[in-house]
């Protein structure tokens, strides 16, 4: 297999996971796309270390995570755009589903706002991408016990946020 | 799976104590029994459903691949041409150095050149004398030609004499 095919089959196939991860951090589609592209170019440039990588997907995720954090630190221009998410990602006119998206985005924002960068990473990788504990531990270079502890904390916030939204009567799923 | 079992798993889910497999099973059960759920279990079922929709909705299309690969190829080409430039520059420097090391006289050779003497000193003296004489005669000829430039001064005086009285009379009036 030549270099380009290996790259496409190993790294480029993770583009959607990388993009989603970036999106949850940067909260902007274009910035998330740029971060994904930047991460994939960085991976291409690091061909010399490919052979040493045990888990390419986890490594790619690590690279995109660092890029996102770097971008956040540099720009600090994260804009809330629930409307954009609503308009661009809902391929349905069902008001019930739209409400579901809005609530989900609100809950996500509420939870993410209370977490540290590491906890955010754990949360997105587990809740959005469905990564196993072991993979998350590899990406973040922490133990599985730490992953579970961070996740426990995040889910506590998740539970509270869901409760809050229910109490305020925002939820209106038909 | 009974609803009370789902309740137990819900508590374990909040504490992040479900295994990977159990969590997968929990999500499937909630999706399957959504109509029978209420309270937190329903919230969670909807949360998982929304997460899975997010995963489906947030995807990059094939144009992303094309754009990325063309950028990568462009970078590779640029770095290739840059490498060629570096090679060309190295060759130029090396050949320049080689040229100087071959053709430039060494210090010994330079001493030899400085000590070099003509074979017939008398003839060399006559040659030098003739050259100096020629130069002197050319210089004298040129000086005679320059004397004609004196005419300019004469002309300048005449022009002055012609125009100055007029300007003086204007001032007086």
How would you characterize the overall build of this protein?
The complex is a heterodimer of chains A (174) and B (173). Chain A is 74% helix and 0% strand. Chain A has 174 residues and is an all-alpha fold. In chain A, helix 4 (56-75) crosses helix 8 and helix 7 (117-128) crosses helix 9 (144-167). Chain A is globular, with a radius of gyration of 17 Å. Chain B has 173 residues and is an all-alpha fold. Helices cover 83% and strands 0% of the residues of chain B. Chain B has helices spanning 3-14, 20-32, 39-57, 62-103, 107-114, 121-147, 150-172. The radius of gyration of chain B is 52 Å and the shape is elongated. The N and C termini of chain B lie far apart (131 Å). The interface between A and B is medium-sized, with 40 and 29 residues.
How many helical elements of chain A? Answer: 9
Please outline the major beta sheet of chain B. Answer: none
Radius of gyration of chain B: 52 Å
**Helicity level of chain A, as a percent range?**
over 70%
Order of helices and strands of chain A: HHHHHHHHH
- Low confidence ranges of chain A: 77-84
The CA-CA distance between the termini of chain A, in Å, is 52 Å
Into which percent range does the helicity of residues of chain B fall?
over 70%
Summarize the structure.
Chain A has 9 helices and no strands. With 174 residues, chain A is mostly helical.
Outline the fold blueprint.
The complex is a heterodimer of chains A (174) and B (173).
Chain A lengths: L2 H8 L4 H12 L2 H17 L10 H20 L6 H8 L5 H19 L3 H12 L4 H8 L3 H24 L7
Chain B lengths: L2 H12 L5 H13 L6 H19 L4 H42 L3 H8 L6 H27 L2 H23 L1
Helix pairs in contact in B: 1-2
What are the salient characteristics of this protein?
A: 174 residues; mainly alpha; 0% strand; globular; B: 173 residues; 7 helices
């Amino acid at each position: 297999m030549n270099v380009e095919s290996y790259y496409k089959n190993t790294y480029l196939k993770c583009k959607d996971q990388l993009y989603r991860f970036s999106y949850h951090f940067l909260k902007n589609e274009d910035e998330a796309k740029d971060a994904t592209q930047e991460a994939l170019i960085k991976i291409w440039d690091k061909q010399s270390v490919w052979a040493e990588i045990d888990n390419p997907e986890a490594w790619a995720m690590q690279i995109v995570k660092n890029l996102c954090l770097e971008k956040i630190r540099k720009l600090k221009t994260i804009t809330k755009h629930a409307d954009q998410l609503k308009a661009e990602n809902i391929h349905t006119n069902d008001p019930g589903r739209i409400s579901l998206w809005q609530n989900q985005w609100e809950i996500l924002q509420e939870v993410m706002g209370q977490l540290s960068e590491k906890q955010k990473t754990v949360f997105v990788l587990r809740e959005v991408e469905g990564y196993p504990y072991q993979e998350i531990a590899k990406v973040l270079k922490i133990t599985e016990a730490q992953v579970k502890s961070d996740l426990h904390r995040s889910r506590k916030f998740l539970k509270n946020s869901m409760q809050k939204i229910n109490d305020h009567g925002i939820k209106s799923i038909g | 799976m009974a609803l009370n079992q789902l309740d137990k798993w819900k508590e374990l889910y909040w504490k992040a104590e479900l295994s990977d497999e159990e969590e997968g099973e929990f999500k499937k059960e909630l999706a399957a029994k959504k109509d029978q759920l209420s309270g937190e279990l329903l919230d969670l079922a909807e949360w998982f459903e929304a997460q899975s929709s997010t995963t489906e909705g947030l995807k990059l299309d094939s144009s992303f691949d094309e754009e990325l690969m063309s950028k990568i190829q462009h970078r590779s080409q640029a770095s290739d041409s840059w490498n060629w430039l570096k090679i060309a520059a190295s060759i130029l420097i090396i050949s320049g150095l080689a040229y100087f090391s071959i053709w430039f006289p060494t210090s010994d050779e330079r001493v030899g050149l400085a000590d070099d003497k003509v074979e017939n000193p008398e003839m060399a003296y006559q040659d030098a004398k003739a050259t100096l004489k020629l130069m002197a005669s050319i210089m004298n000829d040129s000086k005679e030609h320059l004397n004609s430039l004196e005419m300019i001064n004469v002309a300048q005086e005449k022009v002055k004499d012609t125009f100055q009285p007029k300007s003086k009379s204007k001032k007086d009036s």
